[in-house]
Amino acid sequence: MSETPKLLGHEAAWNSWHAAMRSGKMHHAWLLAGKRGLGKASFALSAAAELVAEPGVPQPEPLSHPDIILLQRPPATSDDEKKRDEGKPFNRKRNISVDQIRTMQRRLTTRPTLGPRRAIIIDASDDLEKSAVNALLKSLEEPPQGSFFLLVAHRPGGLLPTVRSRCRQLRFHTLTDMQIEEIVAAREPDVGIETRNAAVEAAQGSPGAALSFVEDELAPIARELRAIMRHGDPDFTRRGALASAIGARPDRERLLASVRLARDICAESARMAPRAYQARLIDTHGALVKLGAEIPYANFDAGLTVVEIGGLLAAASAPKG
Q1: What distance in Å separates the CA atoms of residue 102 and residue 142, rounded to the nearest whole number?
Q2: What does the alpha-carbon distance between residue 96 and residue 294 come to, in Å, rounded to a whole number?
Q3: InterPro entries from the entry (predicted)?
Q4: Strand, coil or helix: what is 147?
Q5: Could you give the 3-state DSSP secondary structure of residue 156?
Q6: Quick one: 138 exposed, middle or buried, by C-beta within 10 A (0-12, 13-18, 19+)?
Q7: Which of 209, 215, 213, 219 is nearest to 245 (CA)?
Q8: Helix (H), strand (E) counts: the chain
Q9: Which residues of 4-15 are buried (b: 16+ CB within 10 A; e: fewer)?
Q10: All residues at 6 or more sequence positions from 10 whose CB lies less than 8 Å from its CB, including other chains
Q11: Dihedrals φ, ψ of 153, to 5°?
Q12: Where do the DSSP E strands lie in 81-191?
């Protein structure tokens, strides 16, 4: 068996997966659980490629493999479908639908193409609408011969117990700052040390978050958010600087990234704050989570959203004196 090179920091997950493959008693459903941005989806694709490979049979890349089914939230509109096909950024629908699950289940009634096994990746199972979860349960309870499920889960506690109980769990842990710095240095060798350090600080153990920080040029935003949290913004000057850092016409993804940064900065402050101050930070964190949940789907004014992000942090800024 040819084993895929291990993702940095996830050797234990690979060891468990390879041991199961060697045993000849591979469980039919796996729950890949851990914080967003740890590489769970990349692991799922690589693991699925190992699972379906047949000796002596040429294998396509995982994303085009006929025996690997990948279910994700689809493009939001026909225009977004065109953007996806052109390799451009696009918006997605809110959920993985029951129709997507049923289409997958119809494929499971046929034989795999290149060998006896087929892998189904759901990225992420957190995104399944309620009826889709119920439909998926039927396949998890009575899996077709040769079908194996890999469910990516950022918040496994939010899944139905009946789903979790049918899966073997692989836990993905956050990485150390040193590991994240190594990944950023390898993937973004031209990035300066100041930006690299800021990316590691913003990552909170997630290499995906660190790489997005660099790719999306979020360092100026993080700097202004931290300034508001530390010093407040009584004359709105820092909120003006934040608006300049985010940009005049930011798209939803840039606003979402800004909210996530503000949320993580708030959480970091709460961990170190005196008890009397923590309640205010916890409330602010909750408001930022709610704002982040609304941005992908609601009609919004980008300028007002930036003001709201800055205002929430300003209201929660460290008390003086």
Answers
A1: 15
A2: 18
A3: DNA_Rep/Repair_Clamp_Loader, P-loop_NTPase
A4: strand
A5: helix
A6: exposed
A7: 219
A8: 14, 5
A9: eeebebbeebbe
A10: 38, 39, 43, 172
A11: -140, 115
A12: 118-122, 147-153, 168-171
pLDDT per residue as tens digits for the range 221-255: 999 999 999 999 999 999 999 999 999 888 888 88
pLDDT of the residue at 33? 95
Nearest partner of 155 among 128, 115, 189, 175, judged by Cα = 128
Helix (H, G, I), strand (E, B) or coil at 230: helix
User: Using CA atoms in the order 316, 317, 318, 321, what is the torsion angle rounded to 10 degrees?
Assistant: -110
Query: Strand 168-171 relative to strand 147-153: parallel, antiparallel, unpaired?
Result: unpaired
Task: Please give the Cα distance from 266 to 225 (Å, whole number).
Answer: 10
Phi, psi for residue 283 in degrees, rounded to 5: -65, -40
Q: Which runs of E-coded beta strand occur in the chain?
A: 29-33, 68-71, 118-122, 147-153, 168-171
Sign of the Cα torsion 71, 75, 78, 83 reads: negative
Give the C-alpha separation, 143 to 235, whole Å: 61
State the distance between the two ends of the chain, measured CA to CA, in whole angstroms: 64
Pull the structure tokens for residue 245: 């850092």
Angle of helix 237-246 versus helix 252-272 axis, rounded to 10? 130
Tell me which residue of 306, 191, 301 sits closest to 255, measured CA to CA.
306
Q: Are 65 and 49 in contact (CB under 8 A)?
A: yes
Cβ atoms within 10 A of the Cβ of 140, count?
A: 17
For 246, phi and psi rounded to 5 degrees?
-70, -35
Going by C-beta distance under 8 Å and a sequence separation of 6 or more, which residues neighbour residue 87?
A: none
Task: Please give the pLDDT value at position 319.
Answer: 63
- Please tell me the distance from the alpha carbon of residue 187 to that of residue 136, in angstroms, as a whole number: 36
Where are the alpha helices (H) located in 188-274, listed in sequence order?
193-203, 207-215, 219-231, 237-246, 252-272
User: In the beta sheet, which residues pair with residue 148?
Assistant: 119
pLDDT tens digits, 79-93: 988 988 888 878 888
The CA distance from 95 to 8, in Å, is: 30
